[in-house]
Structures are given as structure tokens and as C-alpha cells.
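Comment thread on ticket #2218

A.B. wrote:
> Attaching the input chain for the structure job we discussed in standup.
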Amino acid sequence: MDEKLKKLARKIEGLVDRTDPPQLVYDDLCIIAKRQEDYFKHLGPDNFIKLVFYIYSIKNTNDFALGDKMINNLSFIQLIETEGNHTVKTCESCGGDGEYECDDCDGNGYINCDRCDGDGKVSCRSCDGDGREMGDGEWEDCEDCEGSGEESCPDCDGEGTVTCDSCSGGQISCDYCDGNGDIESETDYDYTYRSIVTWSRQISDPCELKEKQNEPAMSEYDFDRLRDEYITLHIHEDSEPLDILENEMYCIFITTEPELRFRDSNKSMTVDMSRFSRLQDHLLA
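C.D. wrote:
> Ran it. Output below, let me know if you need it in another format.
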């Protein structure tokens, strides 16, 4: 199969624009795989990874010796890291709006005037609602209400409604999130799962030593310093109450014989390790 992959690498290496480091070859091939999804899914994720190294090797050395050497030394690792940021979640009380509709006015911002009960009219104060007043010894129509016995309500200026005192424009600021629409968790931290493949003992050795332990395998600084010595296959972000140090890399799984699978996105098709769920439980606070 490796000889077939090498032939395939020669055929398609011209489609890969970026040649170094291997991460860029992988990223380009993931985009190509998305366009030829059926073919690459038939090829399988294990052979896809080998193809990355063969294309990298032929691009940079014009033969496959380097690719074979890298493939023979591969380790597949799952790491977890956090920058110590508390998880910010959408406020459930207001749905993230930062405010909610006032019950008193049904979100209108106005309620019926108590004085006129929403009619906009009250009994005429000049004639006490009679519609008449005593003129020159006889009853005459009230001049103020023209005989109707009613006048415009002075409290609402005849509108029948007044501004609701319970809200602002029909909305009430959410007390639970202080009107922000989101809430910072007191217990949960944002963290990142990172599935990588590496050919470097500088990465795999400390990960083997610290696998599934509560101690970091290496610092984020050292990991970044070795960024050309590994390929990030897939990244997944989540949040939980973790008891880990900031900016440190914790190894939750390492193997030389991984179970791999494809993951689809809108623009590319990445490779991930099948063992993924709940491997971080020993790191929970």
C-alpha cells in the first residue's frame, strides 16, 4: 500500500501549494480531500496521514526517505490546555438579550391610566359630570365640556395610557446578568482539546511519561517552540471545572496505533482520533 501512496503522492503533489512545515501540507491536503471526499474517505484516514508525509518528503527532498523515516516514528497524542479564562455562557434568564419583556405593560412601555381607566376621559370638573351649569337663573350647557359632562383626562392628556413605571420602553434589564446577556461561570474554565501527530521524541517522550497524570507534560511555550515538529490534526473547544495550571499542556492519551476518523467541516476534511470523550475526567476539580 505504501508504494501506491507514493505514486499517489507524485500525482497530486502539484496540487499542494505550501511545502513546509508539514502542518501546511496537511492543511492544504485537507482542503483537497473535501473536494474529493468520496475518494479520500475510501482511502481512509490512516493512509491520508501517510500521504501527508510522502507529499511533504517529495516536495522538500524529491524522494520518500524522509517521509518513511517520519512515518516510522509517529506518535498520536491528545492534549488538553487552558488559558485560565472562566467560561462565559449565555444568560438563561434573558436568553442573552440582557433584558426581558415587562409583564406589567406586555412590552409596550405604556399602561392604562388609573384615573380614566384607559378611556382618556373623566368627569368634567366644572360641572361634576352633569354637563350643565347654572347660568342667568337657568341651566345651560357647561362651557368647558360643551354639555358632554366629560373632559380630557389631565393625567394622560386624553391618551388613555401613561408611561409604565416598571420598565424602560417595555423592557426590564436582567438582574441575573446585569443586562450583559452573558454570565461568567464561577467554576468552569474554557479549555482546548488538541489531537496531534508528531515524529519528535522531544514531544512524545514527556507525553508518555505524564500520560493521564495531573502533571503537565510540557509548557505551552515549549510546545509552541516545537511547532514544526508536530501536526495539529483537530482542535475541539469545551468548558468544565478543571484543576489544571494555565498555559500548560496535559497529555490525556498517546499511542502509536491510533483509531483515526475523518471529521467534516464546510471547507476541509480533517483527521481526528476516535478516543476522545471523557479522557480528561482525572483533571476535573
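A.B. wrote:
> Thanks. Noting for the ticket: The chain has seven helices and 16 strands.
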